[in-house]
Write a structure and sequence with these properties.
The protein is mainly α. The protein has six helices and no strands. Helix 1 packs antiparallel against helix 2, helix 1 runs parallel beside helix 3 and helix 2 packs antiparallel against helix 3.
Amino acid sequence: MTKIEKHPAPEKLLRQITTETIDALGLGGQPDHPSIAILETGVGLIAKAWGLSQEALQNSVDLIQRQKQNILSGNGEEVLPRDECLESYDGPMIVELLWGLFETAIKLADAQDRAAIHDLAILMADSLNLDDWIEACGPAKA
């Protein structure tokens, strides 16, 4: 059984949500789609909640903006190495990501910021098919 990291590193969490945003855009997501906005907001809030450096945040924002520009220009250039794109998550990985998002929400003082992280967690649980993993494992295997 894979050990779930209950306290994923904030830098890892930032990288995961950045990658998920880039993947969503690469899979045909429109730059102005509400789910893209939820992901992008999450990037900023993760950095804010954990006090990550401005450089770390700016690197994520720059990657997302480059992906958006590539989509709008029709350029097929990838902004991340292929081995970092479209990572397949198993159940424990999904739970670890969601746990990290909920820990992030707790660190935020503003109710709207916490609600935005909640929306991001719901989006990630849905898009990564957490319910399917729970159903596949069954209660005795979870």
